[in-house]
Amino acid sequence: MRRSWVVAVVLLAGACTGPVRSSSVYESKAGQTAEVVASAVQTALLAVDAAEHDQAYGRYLTQVLVEAEEDAGSAQGVFDGIQPPDDRADELRSHLDDLLTEATGALTELRIAARRGRFAELPELARPLPEVGRRLGDFAEAHG
Amino acid sequence: MKRLFSIALGILTAIGGFVDIGDIVANAETGARFGMSLAWVVIVGVVGICLFAEMAGRVATVSGRAVFDLVRERLGARVALVNLVASFFITFLTLAAEIGGVALAIELATSVNYLLWVPIVAFLVWLVIWRVKFGLMENAFGLLGLALVVAAVALWRLGPDWGGLLHAATHPVVPQGEGHPTWWFFGIALLGAAMTPYEVFFFSSGAVEEGWSRADLITNRLNVYIGFPLGGLLSLALMAGATLFLEPRGIEPGHLSQVALPTLLVLGKLGLAVLLVGFFAATFGAALETGLSCGYSIAQYFGFQWGKFVRPADAPRFHLIVLLSILAGAGLVLTTIDPVTVTEYSIVLSAAALPLTYFPILVVANDPDYMGDKVNSRLTNALGSVYLLLLLVVAVATIPLMILTKAGS
Question: What domains, with CATH codes, occur in chain A?
Fold first, then answer.
């Protein structure tokens, strides 16, 4: 009984992060990461839309943008912690990382502006996001 | 006139008190991911909770004792202990989720980290339970919870394709790219959210707290048969909002702030303010109910004096259990575990424990020694048995599905 618990704990711990053995599993994790970050990007775009039309309170908008940035950053962090199993995975990682960095960079700019109360600047800062969001969505669909 | 007012108040309170953090999270997540294809589960859940809450209320009204007060006496200490352990664990987890939910709702209004609000929320929950009269507490937060109607108003103002929504709800299809196991897993989560065990603990104990007599049987029925289904409509409104706004954009709501987006985008600042009041009231009201239910369940099993109908000094162990539960619930949230994750697990595990909660109610509601001529009708028994069978299947499937789908991810 005790041994089975040890095995279960080791398996669970191993499932958290670390290397994946096959390229297809890595690809699936890449797709899932793209999906999470695309969701954060779309959320931020709705918040920016609300800010542009003066539909929401600043504190709420700030909170939405903080959470969107956290979600994207955390997904990127977890993905970067996974060991790519082969060259093909390296390529995939490089391609996705560019997209993730672009998305998280823009989300960080939005969060900084919102925290400083500069809500009028949000639409301008969010300009790259629709395109990044679309590419992330396409990536998730292709590799999910 | 006074009676009519009392019935209307009871119904309104039941509507406002129906939705809690579990319903908010489960319906928004499901709508965003599966559209309206799982709306039928909400209806199954509402019918189920109506059926068993009416039984629990009737038992309390006729016998003058809360249903779980009778479970140990009727089914013996061992069976009742299994029931107690399962139900208490789920209720405690739900309490933690509700405390986290209140803190998240305040965070949305203030932009101050929710963890800083948790101790304050826990203190307020304890203070209200300790000081405020049962009727006032139930009515105030139930009525305030009606603010969630704003989600339905936003849907109506948006003027969606009602026929399309209805068609999607009545012709359920697993969306492309989603697996059947995940779809069923989310269905189970929705059922767990609608039929969460504390609702019957609270409903039956509440009937004793308010001193219901046989004359109140009609109030019991109207509260349940009108109030709960209308509360279920609020759940469906949240699901439909997520279907229309979040699903097309691929947004998977993991935060309360995202659940508010559909209402905000249709109704603007005023809609958002009213919705946040609704979130606060629904979660705070449910925190009170789950906090009390923790005390009810243990005190009723061990035969301690319980309830707010006696002075706290006369029910010290009951109040101590409530206090410790609130402290432990707040402690759990303060570990920085995501309250939405706690909610997700509480509703799924709630689904796994449902037969343990509802089987004893069916047994007691059929016992003429307690119920006299108010035992279940044949129709109620038939429906109750069908539901128990369904809940048993759900309970068996829950954990394998959770593992298979990695908790729906």
Answer: 21-139 (1.20.120)
Q: Which residues of A touch B254 (CB under 8 A)?
A: 71
pLDDT digits (tens, 9 = 90+) for A113-143: 999 999 999 999 999 999 999 999 999 988 8
Nearest chain B Cα distance for residue A142, angstroms:
11
Q: Specify whether the CB–CB gap between B340 and B255 falls below 8 A.
A: yes
**In this structure, which topology does domain B2-169+178-373 adopt according to CATH?**
Amino acid/polyamine transporter I (1.20.1740)
DSSP state of A72: H
pLDDT digits (tens, 9 = 90+) for B338-378: 998 999 888 888 888 888 888 888 988 998 988 889 999 99
Dihedral, CA of residue B61, residue B64, residue B66 and residue B70, to nearest 10? -120
Q: What's this model's pTM, rounded to 2 decimal places? A: 0.90
Q: Which residues are within 8 A (CB) of B44 and not within 5 positions of it... i.e. 6 or more apart? A: B191, B194, B390
Note which residues in 257-276 of chain B have CB less than 8 A from chain A. Answer: 257-258, 260-261, 264-265, 268-269, 272-273, 276
Element holding B358 (H helix, E strand):
helix B339-364
Provide the chain B residues 98-127 that lie in CB contact (below 8 A) with chain A. 107-111
Global ipTM: 0.85
| pLDDT tens per residue across span A77-95 | 999 999 998 888 899 999 9
CA distance B74 to B67: 10
User: What single letter denotes the amino acid at residue A59?
Assistant: R
Q: Which residue matches tokens 């809940």? A: B391
A50-74: burial string, b at 16+ Cβ within 10 Å, e else: bbeeebbbebbbbbbbbbbbebbbe
